[in-house]
Amino acid sequence: MLGILGRRFFVLLGILLLVAVLSAAFIGELAIIHGDAIVAAFIADFLRYSLALLLVLVVTTSVVEDYEFRQFERLLTMPLARWQYIAAQTIVIASLGGLLALPVIVLVAIFGDLSLGAYWALALWLELLLLGLLALLAGLSLEKVPLAVFFTLAVYLLAKLSGLITLMLAESVKLAEGSAASRALEFIFKAILYVIPDTTTFADSDVFFEARSALPLLAEQSLSVTIYALFLLAVCLVDFYRKEFNL
Question: Quick check: 216 pLDDT over 90?
Fold first, then answer.
């Protein structure tokens, strides 16, 4: 954790927060109606994706550097089980996600209200935790930063757009009059959806425009994140134990 929290990390975080504030002020000038809700939603989504990218870069770089600098070989010479390394990385990801989510409370509360800020920070922390575990798996499996980042972001975007893609495939089947190719494509995508998170796993932007209770949303998201987090940790352990190191 201390190796991650350097000056460059905090400079990047400060730049992202500054860009969010300046962009929000510009968006607020353009908004005609529901200006506060639009600005708060913009800040929330901007920070969601920018902090997600920052987290993915940090986690994948840290894991891949452990390979490049042969840290794993040193660890395996100690009385340290591999599951303990995974557990330590999980704690680091959870702590890092919490650190990134903290400023979100303040910014969303300034342009929205405190309850929205608290909800979004908690929901974003859950989202970052899941994304960080996915980045951990990608780093362990692919051992290259560009490949790990591309894989993590691809799965993340696929999960975010799963509802839209499902709707498009359903309409394409109708337009193609149920052709075999369209049905096969729809079946393949539905099969993929069983191993990636669904839309309930992420923070809900509708809370900025609709009066919705945050507790049910957080409960549903927590359950979904827990299921997928356990799945990712299990896959990480399987992948980690199967590797052979030249000691």
Answer: no
Contact status, residue 165 vs residue 189, Cβ threshold 8 Å: yes
Does residue 37 carry a pLDDT above 90? no
- Rounded Cα distance between 71 and 76, Å, is 9
Distance CA 180, CA 184 (A): 6
The dihedral built from the CA positions of residue 146, 148, 152 and 154, taken in this order, carries a sign that is: positive
Are the C-beta atoms of 149 and 56 separated by less than 8 Å?
yes
The string of DSSP codes covering 180-222 is HHHHHHHHHHHHHHTTS--GGGS--GGGGTS---HHHHHHHHH
- Calpha distance 122→189 (Å, rounded): 30
Helix (H) or strand (E) holding 161: none
For 38-64, letters b (16+ CB in 10 Å) and e give bbbbbbbebbbebbbbbbbbbbbbbbb
Contact between residue 37 and residue 29 where contact means Cβ atoms under 8 Å apart: no
Q: What's the rounded Cα separation, in Å, for the pair 226 and 215?
A: 16
Residue 116 near residue 217, CB atoms below 8 Å: no
How far apart are alpha carbons 112 and 39 in whole angstroms? 8
pLDDT score of 246 more than 50: no
